[in-house]
Amino acid sequence: MIPTSFEWIWDMGHIVFMGGLWYALTILGIGMTYCIVKAAIDTLKGDDGGHHN
Amino acid sequence: MDSALIPEGVKRCPFPRFLTGLAVVGAVLLWGVFAMLLCWLKGLNQTNMNDSYGFALWIWADLAIIALGGGAFFTGFLKYIVGKDELKNIINFAVLIGFICYSSALLILAIDIGQPLRGWHIFWHANVHSMLTEVAFCLSCYFGVLTIEYIPLILENRQIDKIPFFHNLGHNMHEVMAVFAATGAFLSFFHQGSLGGVAGVLFGRPFAYREGLLVWPWTFFLFTWSAAAYGPSFTIFLTKLLEKVSGKKLVKDNVIDLLAKISGWMILTYTIAKIIDTWYWIKYTLPGTGFRLMDFYDDNMLYGLWILVAEIVVGGIFPALILITKKGRSTSSLLWTAVILACIGVCINRWVMVLQVMAVPVLTFEEWALYFPSWQEIATTILPVAYGIILVMISYRYLPIFPQEKELNPVES
After folding, report:
1. Are strands B212-213 and B216-217 parallel, antiparallel or unpaired?
2. Is the pTM value of this prediction over 0.90?
């Protein structure tokens, strides 16, 4: 649900619940976008990324 | 046949034996899938749920596997946030277990809601006054986190890792894993807690009702605490079980010792908190609702006082005392006993908080409401177990789940 939905109400419940959901999804989305874009750039540059544990 | 996919430097059973194992467990899985389809196609009349049991075997299974899967978030928290670096040798397996537990929980919920095509309604038409909405949000998001934590493991497969983009993607995901782990710990804190909160706010059900802090009943904190405490014990139990099945040592003793010690102290502190909570409930909360303790434990063999003792003493104090001692952790039989009792203990706790709550009569004219699940409910509850075994089999065979395996089991060339 987003503020443009007809059932949205500007109260604390909606702001905390939906804000928390979108906040978590944003972190995951930005994190994965960063990893994918950086992997594409590294691959184009021919960087092998090294080993990881 | 599949040797090119198996990690370098480790030995696996012959492919035909692996396929036979998959087929046996797969048959059980198909039985569960058949029952699941019955529930979806014919409806929830396939279950023995009724007006007394809106929550039944599935919800217990859900809560139990979410608690047992708590090892993923707590081990991730310990490794990435607290800095217990030794746990890097077991974190992959903890993530795999967490992934299985949470995907199973979501699968069970998809069956339980009866109309899975409307599952998205809980996100888009959210009831923001419901603890279950918080559970749905955090559970789904945390499953996303676990998927993100599991992907780098898949990318480390010998053949996939040869593709530069996937190699770089896996590397980059490892680099920022602390951010995902911290998000996972945050989400887990809230959904584990809210599952307990659901029971604790039921003021019409004095067996479950608890006072608390602000909007959170004490059960909110006890559920989070117990998941963090018992989850690592389940991780140890499955690691030891896999070592028995594979006939190999997969993780060094110091890693198991550290995780067992942390789990032991967490279980001990949790059990003390649980005892205080139970005492306060008996002494102050219950009399205020017009009930006595024995109103919930007599006239019924299934829910006698033994279940309280089994939960707190056998499944709490015993494993805690074993796991906090060096001798208990280093003696194989004692360690096995402790982690098994711990897993049983947390499952009893979830059983009591879901099913005994429903069974207890709350009005003077009511009787104990007992329930036995239908075979469809049992089959769909066993389904995730079969799915979990299959995913562990495939992951163990093709992915470098245990970084110390090569060192502990050198292969003669």
Report:
1. antiparallel
2. yes
